[in-house]
Amino acid sequence: MKIVMAIIKPFKLEEVRNALTSIGIEGLTVTEVKGYGRQKGHTEIYRGAEYAVNFLPKLKIEVAVPADRADAAVDAIVGAAKTGQIGDGKIFVVDLVKAVRIRTGEADAAAL
What class does CATH assign to 2-110? Predict the structure, then answer.
């Protein structure tokens, strides 16, 4: 099992969700986060004053998938979240040691 974590631009959430659903991956967790990568933020002008925005708003999506579906999930996210502009985000894939569905007690792959 794997956890696919993606940091994406907020306006791409629905496209990513639809892409994952279309390949049969259901259930994801979304968290509002702030951060920066290579772009190191940007400057904005508000009421005539320029100020630096160091941490940009992003969304973090987490999806638990069977190991053989991780590449498909990554491809779906990349296809849906890519704008070709700086700040499109990143995807991380990490091993998932154990999963348990609280309601039924199902474990591991059955819990996904």
Answer: alpha beta
